[in-house]
Structures are given as C-alpha cells and as structure tokens.
Design brief:
Layout: H1 3-10, E1 15-16, H2 22-32, E2 36-40, E3 46-51, H3 52-62, H4 70-73, H5 87-97, E4 101-106, E5 109-115, H6 116-139
Parallel strand pairs: 1-2
Antiparallel strand pairs: 2-3, 4-5
Helix pairs in contact: 5-6
C-alpha cells in the first residue's frame, strides 16, 4: 500500500444508507463540502455511490426531492480500487469510466475514497519532487 493510499484511508469517509432520504444525502454533501457520498449496508459493504451529477440528473426527471431515497438515485455498478492501486491506475480508471470518485475496498469492506482532486494533488506533489531533484542535480 502506497503512502498516498494510506493517507486517503486515514481521513473520514462519508457514507449513507440506501434508505437515507435525498435531503439527508444532500445535507451530507453540503456539510462536508464533498462531491459524492458512498452508500453502504450495515456491514460497511458498498452498495452504490451518489454524486452531485446523479442528483441533478434525477431532479431533471422528477423535479422533486421529497420521497426519494438513496437507493432511488445511486449508481449501483460502482467501480472500486484496492489499496494496492497506483495513482496512474486511478487516473486511467477515472478517465475511461468518466467518474470522479472511486471507493477503496479490501475484502468487500470500504476503507476510503479517492477523488479526482486527490489524484491531481498527488501529481502536483510528484512534479514538485522531480523539479527539486533536477535543481539539486543541476546545482551539484
């Protein structure tokens, strides 16, 4: 497991149940300033994911939020990664599948989530490290 993945697993991972109301889901997204929330069962297994896009698309169809629950709007076929994934593999999965959030799962259990912002931040850190190494080499 890379240091990058370890850092992601250590931070809070926000989740809801499939019976959470859409209003509750929106409150979680808003309160924590996040773009997606995972839907898990009582054993912490991923059942789905709800992104801001999912909510907007559903509102376009129904034009209401009352009565809707997480299971009504969640994406059920969730693409996930294991703790051994590299940031390059994450970028490839996100690009190919046009998604911005991937759960980190091990043995069917949710460990954390990685966002596209996390990957961009990691890339910038790598570039900064390489730049510093080049400066050190040139000045040596």
């Amino acid at each position: 497991m890379t240091a990058f993945i370890k850092s992601l697993i250590k931070r809070p991972c926000y989740k809801v149940s499939s019976s959470s109301t859409l209003v509750e889901v929106i409150e979680v997204l808003s309160r924590h300033n996040i773009g997606a929330v995972l839907v898990v069962d009582e054993t912490n297994s991923v059942e789905g994911i709800i992104s801001e896009r999912d909510i907007v698309r559903r509102l376009l169809i129904d034009q209401i939020v009352n009565g809707l629950v997480a299971s009504d709007i969640m994406t059920k076929n969730v693409i996930s990664v294991t703790p051994n994934v590299s940031s390059s593999e994450i970028m490839k999965l996100m690009t190919e599948n046009k998604c911005r959030h991937l759960p980190i799962v091990s043995n069917g259990q949710l460990l954390g989530v990685v966002s596209i912002g996390d990957v961009v931040k990691r890339l910038l850190e790598k570039y900064d490290q390489e730049l510093e190494q080049m400066r050190t080499f040139i000045n040596a």
